[in-house]
Design brief:
This protein is an alpha/beta fold. Helix content is about 40%, strand content about 20%. The chain starts with 14 loop residues before the first strand and ends with a helix.
Length: about 160
């Protein structure tokens, strides 16, 4: 494993949260975004990154209900509308997030839609998603699987060290 190098910026420790249902997970994410925005974080500095388009559509519906502006980037037309200056949350697949950075990143639906036969690829994609965060990283899941267990164990170790 290669240890990630910091670009001179140190954020807070990642937070991992597990939920019983996808609806609980999505509602928690919406509440976090509202809280961050009310505390002064601009919506354009927040991204939600996920494995499959299905997860993105589910999260978009919840953001719509919460009246949180967002851009769902699942096709070329919507990707062409991406504007880093617009005040809206970016919803991106792990593949689409490559090369982008945001102050706050939520990696949602961890473990959902993963290819269990190719864990190496899934780990690389998860790494890409997590390294989009410049300051804060929130990782959520409603699937109790391999990745959720590993990330929860890492978070527990971080809490025990600090």
């Amino acid at each position: 494993m290669i240890k990630p190098e910091s670009g001179g910026v140190n954020g807070s420790d990642p937070i991992v949260r597990e939920f019983d249902t996808a609806e609980e997970e999505a509602n928690f994410i919406a509440r976090c975004i509202e809280k961050w925005n009310n505390a002064g974080c601009e919506l354009r500095d927040i991204a939600i990154v996920y494995r499959t388009a299905k997860i993105g559509v589910r999260l978009a519906k919840t953001l719509e209900q919460a009246k949180i502006p967002y851009l769902l980037t699942h096709d070329k037309a919507s990707k062409a509308k991406y504007d880093p200056l617009k005040q809206r949350v970016s919803l991106l697949t792990m593949h689409s997030s490559k090369g982008l950075e945001f102050h706050r990143v939520i990696v949602a639906g961890v473990g959902e839609g993963c290819n269990d036969d190719d864990k190496a690829t899934e780990v690389r994609l998860l790494y890409i998603a997590m390294t989009r965060a410049m300051q804060n990283l929130l990782i959520t899941s409603c699937t109790n699987g391999y990745f959720t267990k590993q990330l929860t164990a890492v978070e527990t170790n971080l809490l025990n060290i600090g």
